[in-house]
Amino acid sequence: MIASIMISPWVFAGWCVAAYLVGGLPVGWLLVRRKRYGLDLRNFGSGNIGTSNAYRHAGVDIAVIVGPLQFAQGFLPVLAARLAGLPLTAAMLIGVCTVAGNGWPVYMRFNGGRGVAVATGAIAALSVAGLIALLMCFAWGAIRGRIAIAVMVGFILLPVVALVFGGSDGWILGSGCLAILVLLLLRRLEGLPRDARTYGHFWRRVYQRLVFDERPGRPLMGPRTDPGANSLRH
User: For the segment 14-32, what is each residue's pLDDT rounded down to a tens digit?
Assistant: First the structure.
């Protein structure tokens, strides 16, 4: 067990800002741009700059690098906080900041990735039981071809798992996992009002986003055709 130390609010704020900046580094976007002759992932498929879209449009050789790097973006700041002796509450909030950074990075005009890999890395540094629960859900989704559903189920179950297996710290871990879930839900619902105005059927859009992570005009493969894609093309 790592002993906790008291830290000043300013030092803690510095940790949070650093975690946000690390989590927000657009490693997938940068790597694809460098290795695929300037290809901008935001113009293709889901428009996401994470591992899945990199795999579909840049190849498995890129995706196998992006995935671990994004995992490390969540894992390393939280691990550093724990090794430095910061309280669990502080480490949990630092993990939340890495996910916020990935979803709303200052580098990409506050429109980033889904945050799944970064969130998984943050949880890995905090709760072995939580990590196992997530990986089991991801494996089920991969086998059944329902990875979007599996991801959502995993993170919905995560606060309960953290609360049950977290012992005396369960409420801290559970609360942090709930905050991460809220951030992931907000990323899935990004741009929903605009899609509803353009394509109609508001509640159908909500269902497709939350359950299947699907948006009209954003196919799994190929260029985006939704109105938002025009603002990214030069």
Answer: 999 999 999 999 999 999 9
